[in-house]
Amino acid sequence: xxxxxxxxxxxxxxxxxxxxxxxxxxxxxxxxPTSEACVERIYSRGVYPIIQQVFTSLSNQVPVALxxxxxxxxxxxxxxxxxATLRRSSMVRRPVVxxxxxxxxxxxxxxxxLVFMLSWGFNYRRESLESKLDFDTRRVTPASLExxxxxxxxxxxxxxxxxxxxxxxxxESVPKxxxxxxxxxxxxxx
Length: 190
Prior knowledge:
This protein is an all-alpha fold.
């Protein structure tokens, strides 16, 4: 591969280290063993609440899911890059160019996967609710469900008067970040 091809494909030592690191990290995250307790302690109770707060405030500003935009944007950018690169390459270099493109696609896919795992995916690896709660399937019986339903109705009926006594909040009392979605929801009402 000549110097021009090397510089165009970003194959310098630092670029290769970053690509290798991203691919290796994605592979480890995908197939490596995961401790549910570790995910619960570090991710779900540590990292995720911070990420969620930032992402929620950002995503409330746009009408589309940001991760969907990232995925679609990545796919469109990769297709455009592949077409442009293949058009510029000569027939002699095309096999090498195709290998470089495969590498680039793998790195982008690995990066999108890592973003997904950090922004939500590790939640699928949390401790199960059965292990965190005092849950026993033997206690879920038709009689216990009927008791729960009756108690729920009684408690809701007791709260009816209190709920009716309170007025709806004014638009001014709603946090500013919720005003736009609140107005949108009101506009959707019949």
